[in-house]
Amino acid sequence: MEREHLSESTAGNAAPRMGTITCSCGTVTLTLPNAVPKFRCGCCCTDCLQRAYLGCKGHPPEAIGNLEEPIDLLYVDSQLMKPDPEALAKLEVFKLNKPDEANVNLRATCCGSVLCTENEAFHVPHTMATFNNLRPFLACDFAEVPASRLYVWTSHWPVEKAKALAAREAASRGEALPQIFNVMEALTEAPIAAIAEALKIEASPKPEGSISFAELCESLETMIEHGYYVESRAHVAHEAT
Ligand SMILES: [Zn+2]
Ligand SMILES: [Zn+2]
After folding, report:
1. Ligand having the closest approach to the CA of 92
2. 155 near 238, Cβ under 8 Å?
């Protein structure tokens, strides 16, 4: 279905389908030359949750706030079409809490939507992550979106919440996805190695007029976000180190 739709929409016109990430008020859209995500997984980490609280002005979708659903991460190329000056003026780079945080986050100042994040230790230089289940606060539009493969950082969730997630999945699809309790302790395990492999795939294409996420961020000032939603960390059994 999707393929038919694509060939129709590009008939007589060679322009490839692009991916988009749009803020909640619709003023800012990031356009990615490659519409196909590299990998998809759910993340239970406090930083993803904190970003969701910030981007949703303290009111993330209920299942996320109740820790029934992790943040649905799409790993996509860190290559985007250069925003026009109007959109550029509405973009802001921030880090959570301290300047040496590994995650560089981009948000739209018009409405506060957090658009995407790049981890300087793990994602660079080809990949960044965006958030697939924050509608209506953030709208991702990508093609051939893969199935989610696993959940990471369940150490940041109460044990009973992670167990309930697995039980719901087992009931609905016959099998629960793997849960990685602590990513740093599982770097050589197959599911994490699969993410690492996906992150290494070079961004392609890189058409004229496109820039990397890092290049975009270089042109913007980085602010430290101290806004803190206690709700996003209140349940945490084990803080990130
Ligand atoms: Zn996370
Ligand atoms: Zn906006």
Report:
1. 2
2. yes
